[in-house]
Amino acid sequence: MKPFSLKPHTLAAALLLCAPFAGAHAATPPAADDAGSVSRSPFVPGGRIPLLRGDISIDGNPDEAAWGDALVQEIAFDIQPGDNTPAPVKTTVRMGYTADALYLAFHAKDPDPSRIRAHLRDRDAAFNDDWVGVFLDTFNDHRRGYELIVNPLGVQADLIHDETNSNNQEDPSWDGLWASAGRLTDDGYEVEVRIPFSTLRFPAAGGEQRWGISLFRNWPRDKRHQLASHQVPRESNCFQCQWGKYDGLAGAQQGRNLEIVPTLTVGTTQDRDHAGERWRSGDTSIEPGVDVSWAPSPAMTLNATLNPDFSQVETDQLQLAFNDSFALFYQEKRPFFLEGADYFTSQFDVLYTRQIADPDFGLRATGRTGSGAYGAIVARDATTLLLVPGVLGSGFEQLDQKANVAVGRYRYDFNTHFSVGAIGTFRQGDDYSNNVAGVDARWQQGSHTATAQFLRSQSEYPADIVDGYRDELGDDATPSGNAWRAAYSFGNRNWSFDAWHMDIDPGFRADLGFMGQVGYDKSLIGGGHSWFRDGQAFNRINAYVDFDITHRFDGQLLERELEAQVNAQGPMQSSLRLHGLTRARYWEGRLFDEHYVDVNASVRPNGKLQLGAYVQVGQMLDLAADRTGRRTMVELSGNLNVGRGIALDMDLVHQRMRRDGGTAFTASVLNAGGSWQFDPRQRLRITVQGSKVDRDPALYLDAVNESARDWAAQLVYSYKVNPRTALYAGASYGAFMDDDHRELFGNTRSVFVKLSYGWQP
Hints:
Elements lengths: L10 H8 L28 E3 L21 E4 L2 E4 L4 E2 L4 E7 L3 E9 L21 E7 L6 E7 L5 E7 L7 E2 L7 E7 L2 E9 L12 E12 L3 E5 L15 E5 L9 E14 L8 E2 L3 E13 L2 E7 L28 H4 L20 E11 L2 E10 L2 E6 L4 E6 L3 E11 L4 E11 L4 E13 L2 E13 L2 H11 L6 E12 L3 E10 L15 E13 L7 E13 L4 E14 L3 E14 L2 E17 L2 E14 L4 E16 L3 E14 L2 E16 L4 E14 L11 E14 L5 E12 L7 E12 L5
Parallel strand pairs: 1-15
Antiparallel strand pairs: 2-5, 3-4, 3-14, 5-6, 6-12, 7-8, 7-13, 8-9, 9-10, 11-12, 13-14, 13-15, 16-17, 16-18, 16-42, 18-19, 19-20, 20-21, 21-24, 22-23, 24-25, 25-26, 26-27, 27-28, 28-29, 29-30, 30-31, 31-32, 32-33, 33-34, 34-35, 35-36, 36-37, 37-38, 38-39, 39-40, 40-41, 41-42
């Protein structure tokens, strides 16, 4: 089990906590009035969104006469940690629309405005602040929704909420084009929002619309209060089902819905093999490109990219790739693949778009047809990158050939409870091919959820690739195979239960996905109980235990594992997890006993500081030595806000393995950085990363690398008018040492400028 993340909690974490557990047993409470007393009439969300007449300026001050015609709503309920109790603070929302946009104005009152948490941040980076937001289910089908939030200074964040994706219900990668502004006031803060209809997808225009809408407020103090315009039953597994119903929006128009984004990236890189040598200058690269987006109807979007610049503006988080036999997963950051990514999700990771490493061009279509949702991608990739899986490990290979890529996904919703889908991925090279096709189904009603998926793959590989994995899989290294998974879960107010089984053939390959293990079957059963202690210091406690067992394709036991954990939420937005695990683990022809305990804690004493710590101690396997020893792992993390615009962050992980009377290895990795947000558009970010590994060769039978060091730094300035129009300028520097290079020296350096412009004819 991987260590629990100690990064600042995002909106996704907050909603996943409150959505499954928030209480129908409580009576409908009335909302609090301005003085904090309770009004006699309970608030009921919903109504008709009126047409606004007159001009509105998005400046954070809703004083225009047009707002007088707006529908007035309240954010009346505390759904977390409260059990649909009256909201502790007053929030009113005015709603209206024009022919081309939806308008909202929030007035968030606060009894002590000096405690409001508001910082200038980059987009999607203000989840720990105070904020208000609107969530939109534009098809009113409880499947997919837009989430748009704004902090008191107007900083934006937006996500896609997908009820059908049980693995990750919220995707922060979507960046819509919409306007917002906020300002602090004597009694709290105000926020104005304009959401162009061209940014959203909804049923074809013509008549009136009916949308599901949730109005939300985050009020973080000693506890993190999640406030909503509607109640959320704690026994419900469908957060989106609880949203209020709103009518109106007749005549909503999306306009031309055409966007053209040319890009230009200029950069140069230098390197050298040894300290003191001259730097070798590479050619200056000048890479123009263009992205095109067009929505021919409100329910359909077409995207194209030509010679795209897929360079990473900011570096990936450095991970400790040590004492682990499986390839590391890195999040996708490229806009072409991020937008609409939720259309392609399924229970298996069939599509991992970073496998499309260097496309010459790409085409994508996503949309809705009645009760169906679809997505398709076509691309020509200049590099064929493979994740070669095995039973006990995986790694990446690269073929020196181009490949044609195609992906298709379709889901049909029979009703609000049951849906079926199909997915296919296809990649073809000169002497290489990989095709995957499959079907899946999902049923959810009340506290019960059942899912299933079946996949079939057919592949052709060059002989050297086949020879490489045949050593592990033997005669079962066939070019084809199946994968299937079936799962059932139950969750009500207090109890949860999970059971699933999966089986993946040795010959199964999903080369456009991220499935790093094949040739095994695995079963799991687990359950837990939650205690809600409203008004207590630790207001929520959850205990969970599960057992799983894994076998190789030939019946060999690979893993038998029992684990248990207790989680608690306490004062100062603190969380505490106690976890223990014991297992038998197969490696290099033997079964090894592993067991450890760990403690994970985080606390946010105020709006400026967050601290986290993770400690793990126990008997673990040293893969390079085929022996167990006492491993200690410590992770320390922190985030500090200085003033409104400066943020400092740090994450340090350290491992040590002691066995056979000595220290077999120590390994550390550091990710640190700082950012200065001058204003909502301008940001300066510095990142420093480093790792250090030392081994004692005397404690290993086979030769091992004695030491390795590396570090890198990056400085990036950005000016963002919006997610499409932006300027980036940056420089990076890297250094390393190993057994062949005993001196730490700089070996790479680079500079770059990237410019993009979003043009809407």
